[in-house]
Amino acid sequence: MNPGAAPTTQPISSHEDLNPQELKLKGFKAYQVDTAAGPSHAYRRRDFYKVALVTSPCTVHYADRSIEISTPSLMFANPHIPYSIELHDPRLTGYSCLFTEAFMKENDRSESLQQSPLFKVGGTPVFQLDEAQVAYAQSIFEKILAEQRTEYLYKGDLIRTYLHLLIHEALRMQPTESYVQHKNASSRITALFLELLERFFPVESPGQSLPLKTAQDFAHQLGVHVNHLNRAVKEVTGKPTTTHIAERFIGEAKALLHHTSWSTAEIAYSLGFEYPTYFNNFFKKHTGTTPLAFRRDTERVADA
Predict the structure, then answer these.
(1) Which stretch of 65-79, 174-188, 281-295 has the lowest confidence by average pLDDT?
(2) pLDDT band at 36 (very low <50, low <70, confident <90, very high)
(3) Which residues contact 177 (CB under 8 A, 6 or more apart)?
(4) What is the pLDDT of residues 49-91, one digit of tens each?
(5) Structural domain range at position 243
(6) 121: which DSSP letter?
(7) Which residues belong to any copy of the HTH araC/xylS-type domain (predicted)?
(8) Is 60 exceeded by the pLDDT of residue 219?
(9) Lowest-confidence pick of 195-199, 211-215, 282-286
(10) What's the sign of the alpha-carbon dihedral 233, 239, 241, 245?
(11) Nearest-angstrom CA–CA distance, 122 and 126
(12) Do 203 and 224 belong to one domain?
């Protein structure tokens, strides 16, 4: 660790050759990480589960907690909780494997990964390893990488087995209790809420419906009580959680009305409203006009 190096925040993996389509087709993708720490940017592969062997000193900011990693550790991430990594070394090193829940449950009727102690909301995502455990985990990742390159017909089954070995190695370990309270927990949870809110925009298809709509929805996704989320957001921003949600929804609704030819019913559905009338009432409450009137006014201005 270089004490003079300024910490940088970035995703746990920084890989340029990841093919999302390949990952969707096969259900998994493993890679070795050894790259210079770049500028802060969002972790993009949030629609897949992840197991990583982290060998660089860093701090994992996860929901409203921060977890110090000073020794090599196994980290488990799910697609439902945003997180970031604050690096303390100039290079990021380790191994990662991304996979879908469908890949892990193929030919298996086990419980959902979301219920696993390693992946569930509020669970422990980091397990520090001793020297023997590091060697074992590294050997498993090397086997996954080697098998990934073969044409063996049943390599998916083998890779599933290797992933289960990593999962069971963590399950039989005591959870890491190296949580540290962030200097400003309210700022941390507020930033995570705003990042999670922003992640759903822009809406790109009328067939896409936003999955989270209420403060309770966002609190559940972040693994915190809704009262805690509301207090933190109000303390940091001066505005209630519901106001942030409403403002972002209205902003997106205006953009869709102005820049697309979607019907108001399509826009309502894409924003998570069950009925167009609910959307119309919501829009008028916050803007003083109806969606159709807003669209006519913007078209009139554009034609002027």
Answers:
(1) 174-188
(2) low
(3) none
(4) 889 999 999 888 766 677 888 999 999 887 766 677 778 888 7
(5) 185-303
(6) T
(7) 187-297
(8) yes
(9) 195-199
(10) negative
(11) 12
(12) yes
Q: Which residues pair with 62 in a beta bridge?
A: 65, 83
- How far is the C-alpha of 108 from the C-alpha of 163, rounded, in Å? 14
CA distance 241 to 236: 11
CB 128 within 8 A of CB 69: yes
Question: Which of 161, 180, 199 is at the close of a domain?
Answer: 180
Region label for 63, one of left (φ > 0), alpha (ψ between -120 and 50) or beta (otherwise): left
At residue 59, the 3 state secondary structure works out as strand
User: Among all chains, which residue has been given the structure tokens 């093919």?
Assistant: 19
CA angle 20–26–28, rounded 5-degree value: 70
Percent of the chain surpassing pLDDT 90: 39
DSSP state of 113: G
DSSP 173-185: SPPP--EE--TTH
Handedness of CA 220, 224, 226, 230 (dihedral sign): negative
3 in a structural domain: no
Query: What is the distance between the terminal CA atoms of the chain, rounded to a whole angstrom?
Result: 62
Residue at 1 is within a domain: no
